[in-house]
Design brief:
single chain; about 170 residues; alpha+beta; Nuclear Transport Factor 2, Chain: A; 4-stranded antiparallel β-sheet; 3 helices; 8 strands; about 45% strand
Length: about 170
């Protein structure tokens, strides 16, 4: 009986080790993937969960963070970096006790550039100003890159991308 228990423990250890070897991304890379999908920069995110998990026979990372009053929840495949599940939820009073974050113009530009995948030296900004839309302060940002026109509306309180559009210039 002791040999059987020892044998089963060894198999479990080998299985866990093989699963760990199958992971191709790190927890930090999973966080970066989640931030990019949400369209926010790390400085605005308060991470509440980031740990490995096992779901439907696959190793995943559970990543959860708040930006202002919005909760972002991700399940990311540890082998491929693909987002398996993604959800957002707004909270009336917010996780941060009602404190509001303020995004400045430069940060709003960085958020748009990060989502589009460009560095500032490769774009030409044509518009960036603060506006009110549906009772919410938003930055309207437009830039040209690679013959395409990028337009973003970014919440000035949370840094969340509210809307974006890409067209031929």
């Amino acid at each position: 009986m002791k040999k059987l228990v020892l044998f089963l423990c060894m198999i479990a250890i080998l299985a866990i080790g093989a699963t760990a070897l199958a992971a191709n991304i790190t927890i930090d890379q999973a966080k970066e993937i989640a931030l990019a999908k949400a369209g926010v920069i790390a400085e605005h995110a308060l991470f509440t969960k980031a740990h490995p998990d096992f779901d439907d026979g696959r190793e995943t990372f559970d990543v959860e963070f708040y930006v202002g009053n919005t909760e972002y929840d991700f399940e990311i495949d540890a082998a491929t970096g693909d987002i398996r599940e993604f959800s957002t939820e707004s909270h009336l009073y917010g996780f941060l006790g009602g404190e509001s974050q303020t995004v400045n113009e430069e940060q709003a530009k960085q958020i748009a550039l990060a989502q589009a995948g460009f560095k500032p030296e490769y774009v030409r900004f044509t518009k960036c100003h603060l506006d009110m839309d549906d009772g919410r302060k938003e930055y309207e940002i437009e830039f040209i890159a690679n013959g395409m026109k990028y337009e973003y509306n970014i919440d000035a309180t949370t840094g969340r991308i509210v809307e974006f559009d890409i067209d031929n210039d």
